[in-house]
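User: Okay, second chain of the day. Same drill as before: sequence in, structure tokens out.
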Amino acid sequence: MSASTRVALATSVSGLAWDTDLPLLLEALRARGLDAVAALWDAPDFDWSRCAAVVIRSTWGYEQRLPEYLAWADAVQGVTRLDNPAWLVRWNTDKRYLGELAGRGVPVVPTRFIAPGEDVVLPGHGQFVVKPAVSAGARGAARYTQDLHEKAAAHIAALHAAGSTAMVQPYLTRIDEGERALVFLGGSFSHAVRKGPVLTGIGTVDDDRVPHPGLVGHLPSATELALAEAALAAVPGSPGLLHARVDIATADDGTPVVMELELVEPNLFMGHSEHGPARFTDLVQERAR
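Assistant: Same drill. Structure tokens below.
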């Protein structure tokens, strides 16, 4: 088919194997007559310029090659449409964006960022979490108690030695009630799921966790929807997002707070949405040149 109808969903080797959204989206796109393909983001011989649009999907593991990944996003955007756009990929891959959201009045999990060379100050009470500012799927994260300050400091030192900025957050005591993931397509709410806590162990940096345990459908409250919409409205530049996921949890005082804003390669949990794949296809078809 012509370049005017080719659409690439950028993925990875692990994405091809494990991304359950990918076949659903490819099927929906192809049913509309689009030449939809799944392409490895780092494939040296794939011609992105032949695509009318490229949608970032399961480019898992990008955080281990971030400079290369960001350069790839810039290059693709230079030859075709990229969703979400490269500048937003750069902004959202570093969780220091949480500080920007908080500065714009969005309730987020309180977060202290500790860059290499800065003093390490750990919470004086309660459990807490340490993780790198650039990460995905809870990789490189661990939960600590007050008697494990030395171990937590060693974790931060290891992150600094690798050139990473560390994040320190309180461990929310009500996280067992479930983390809610609200999916938006084209700026409008689509569907939501609830999932169990990931950091169930204490003091262990485990990179082989199940990222979305106990997944079930969820009907968000009006308060949760308002928070998610406020978080997206606070994204700089009002970018007109193709897809977005806002992860929300309950703070200790019972109010919802944003845990993460997933704008790069979020799992969209399309299996939990009757109309999600069709809506996704509508948007891609509208945006493709």
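The CA atoms of residues 116 and 161 lie 8 Å apart.

User: Thanks, on to the next one.
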